[in-house]
Amino acid sequence: MSVDRRAVLAGGAAVAGLALAGPAGLTSASAAAPMATTQAPGFYRYKVGDFQITAIHDGFAGRPLEGFIRNAKLEDVQKAMGAAGLSTERLPLTFTSLVINTGAKLIVIDTGNGNSGAPTSGRWMENFKAAGFSPDQIDTILISHFHGDHINGLRLKDGAAQFPNVEIKVPEPEWAFWMDDARMNAASDALKGGFQGARRVFKDMPNVSRFQWGKEVAPGITAIQTDGHTPGHTSFMISSGGAQFIALGDVTNMPSLFVRHPGWHAVFDMNGEIAERSRRKMLDMAASEKAQVAFYHAPFPATGHIVRDGSGYDFAPALWSSAA
Amino acid sequence: MSVDRRAVLAGGAAVAGLALAGPAGLTSASAAAPMATTQAPGFYRYKVGDFQITAIHDGFAGRPLEGFIRNAKLEDVQKAMGAAGLSTERLPLTFTSLVINTGAKLIVIDTGNGNSGAPTSGRWMENFKAAGFSPDQIDTILISHFHGDHINGLRLKDGAAQFPNVEIKVPEPEWAFWMDDARMNAASDALKGGFQGARRVFKDMPNVSRFQWGKEVAPGITAIQTDGHTPGHTSFMISSGGAQFIALGDVTNMPSLFVRHPGWHAVFDMNGEIAERSRRKMLDMAASEKAQVAFYHAPFPATGHIVRDGSGYDFAPALWSSAA
After folding, report:
1. Which terminal residue of chain A, N or C, has fewer Cβ atoms less than 10 Å from its own Cβ?
2. Which residues, other chains included, contact B299 with Cβ-Cβ below 8 Å and sequence gap of 6+?
3. pLDDT < 70 regions, chain A
4. How many CB pairs under 8 A join A and B?
5. What gap in Å lies between CA B26 and CA A192, rounded to an integer?
6. What's this model's pTM, rounded to 2 decimal places?
7. DSSP state string for B133-167
8. Is B119 within 8 Å of chain A by CB?
9. Residue A246: beta bridge partners?
């Protein structure tokens, strides 16, 4: 049954004829209100056990849908976007980093685009400060992988290091790959930018150390191997007061595409097969353990749960709450 | 296949033995950062054609899941909540009102709990001001129906009218029902509060007029009959620049329950059968026309699209964007 819109709009005819009471002499607002140009600051807080997590939004970069997924037809991708109520032409890639307050330590995971990304990105520091934080409160910055939208916030374009006094911890396998001169020299032109970008950020940065997968990298935070997106891509398992949380990084890009279709390979995945294996492993774990998750590229505030849906999965965004 | 969490955490063993570089002498943050107690202000802007809509959050009231749905077993309701990644015990009823800037007029739809609701509600005025608005900018307030969480913001507990100079427009059938003394006198004790509440708010309020279904009640805004939740419950169809938007009010309460299960009757629906008919009519129309919608009780920012899912529907939240 399809409802005719004119019939719906005309539904009131049944009550036509009733007398209407009306006020007289009201001087309503005298001038048109200006259109606003800003949103509320891009931060959002939630609890995981005794920890308080603050999602910090870095903005977005728009891109065409075409060419985004390597192993799916455009029409299938458009269908998936339509099924999620989204545009079938363009897609906003959003960037949301995490600040974790353990009560004793303030830990940051990934730092956004700095001033090297799209003009609609680079809001990390502004939103971090709007959330009441200052950089000198940070104890540790954890990095999931070396793509520019995750590390360029560490160093501005003019060369200024943004966190010279903060301990910065990066995945050893990621460091080993991108800092390998032989690999860089043999790389395609397209890939060379990634090697150069990692060097630009980390060169002569003395406050960087490397961690291994499977190790605790901060109190209650363990690094998990989720490679494929990059050779050293890392997720972080966070445990507090019996609650489990997984900062999944780029295990999926936009969940309405890749949680629904874990077999799809985003153009940014360096090794699609390995990335898919990591993705399936983590989706299964998150669903089985009912762990809350965050994706770097999920719609802000970029947190929720992985639920099973038939033989597949869906991403159920957490309910926004005004309680911090 | 279920993934063993210990195996995942131990995945890094493969790279054990690599040398780790570590910085020395860093003096990380010296003091624990305090846990924050506030969220960003509860407003969110989006465009519908040439109109700018601002969702204004009034907060929430928690309630047990038990007794919430009249015609479903608790275990089925819990299953639906679990499928949406939500608590199977309690549910937050959230309140989100709308401000519509047409460029010429500033229109408000519903006004929240005022200071008559749960302590976690009543944030409307604070968030309205945080969004940069002032009450004297409002041209018209439209009311969807007379439940307290929609009208108590019009008058505080001490009797103070909050918008004495603003044109307030209410549905004629809603007025006719709740202002009928004979109906009030015959009402059950449970229902009597609704009659008294409507009188408390609207008594001696000269700036109120009544509108009929099917009529344009503000520029580009048409009142639509969606009764059942209350006898005069009204939705608003908003048209601008070729874009369609429907402020659905309480056509559903929490969408993850009632969009997925349009046949479920919330305890607040005065006539469950009629409410269901209105719900099915509007879900079909929103899905067919791909109109953006807002529900008063959807998770903030409470807007998105109705998409078809098999023989039913799903609510696809709009993507949060930092672009106002």
Report:
1. N
2. A317, A319, A320, B94, B254, B317
3. 1-28, 30
4. 293
5. 32
6. 0.92
7. --GGG--EEE-S---HHHHGGGB-TTS-BS-TTSE
8. no
9. A237, A293
Cα gap B152→A291, rounded to integer Å: 39
Task: Say yes or no to pLDDT of B8 above 60.
Answer: no
Give the residue carrying structure tokens 């559903």: B252
pLDDT single digits (tens) A21-72 = 445 556 557 578 999 999 999 999 999 999 999 999 999 999 999 999 999 9
User: How far is the alpha carbon of B297 from chain A, nearest alpha carbon, in Å?
Assistant: 11
E strands present in chain B: 43-48, 51-64, 90-101, 106-109, 140-142, 167-171, 208-211, 216-218, 221-225, 234-240, 243-249, 292-295, 303-309, 312-317
Is B13 in Cβ contact with A120 (below 8 Å)? Answer: no
On chain B, the residues whose CB falls within 8 A of the CB of A9 are: 214, 222, 224, 237
User: Does A186 touch chain B if contact means CB atoms closer than 8 Å?
Assistant: no
Smallest CA–CA distance from A8 into chain B, residue = B224
> With an 8 Å Cβ cutoff, is A2 touching chain B?
yes
Helices (H), B45-187: 74-83, 124-130, 148-151, 172-178, 181-186
B5 touches chain A (CB under 8 A): yes
pLDDT (0 to 100) of residue A28: 58
Residue B101 contacts residue B52 (beta carbons within 8 Å): yes
Q: Give, in order, the Cα–Cα distances in Å from B126 to each of A185, B84, B153, B296.
A: 58, 30, 12, 18
Q: Which chain A residues are closer than 8 Å to B304 by Cβ? A: 85
Kindly tell me if the per-residue pLDDT of B35 is higher than 60: yes
**Burial (Cβ within 10 Å: 0-12, 13-18, ≥19) of residue A178:** buried
Q: Which of residues 213-252 of B touch A (CB under 8 A)?
A: 213-215, 222-225, 237
Best residue of A136, A280, A320 to probe chain B, by most B CBs closer than 10 Å:
A320
Q: Closest Cα to residue A42, out of A99, A86, A85? A: A99
Q: What confidence tens digit (pLDDT) does each residue in B108-156 have?
A: 999 999 999 999 999 999 999 999 999 999 999 999 999 999 999 999 9
User: Which amino acid makes up residue A98?
Assistant: L
A20 vs B186: which has the higher pLDDT: B186
pLDDT in tens, B36-46: 999 999 999 99
Contact list, A22 vs chain B (CB under 8 Å) = 209-210
**Cβ distance of B85 and A165 shorter than 8 Å:** no
Whose CA is closest to A223, among A175, A277, A272, A169? A169
Of B166, B284, B320, the CB nearest to A1: B284
Task: Please give the distance of CA A252 from its chain centroid, rounded to a whole number.
Answer: 9
Question: What residue ranges define each of the domains in chain A, with the CATH number in brackets?
Answer: 41-317 (3.60.15.10)
For B14, other C-beta atoms within 10 Å of its C-beta total 12
**How close does chain B come to A166, measured CA to CA in Å?**
6
How many Å lie between the alpha carbon of B172 and the closest alpha carbon of chain A?
A: 7
Asked if B289 has any chain A CB less than 8 Å from its own CB, the reply is yes
Q: With a cut of 80, say whether residue B205 has pLDDT above it.
A: yes
Encoded tokens for B158: 């001490």
Q: Which of A23, A120, A211 sits opposite B209 (nearest CB)?
A: A23
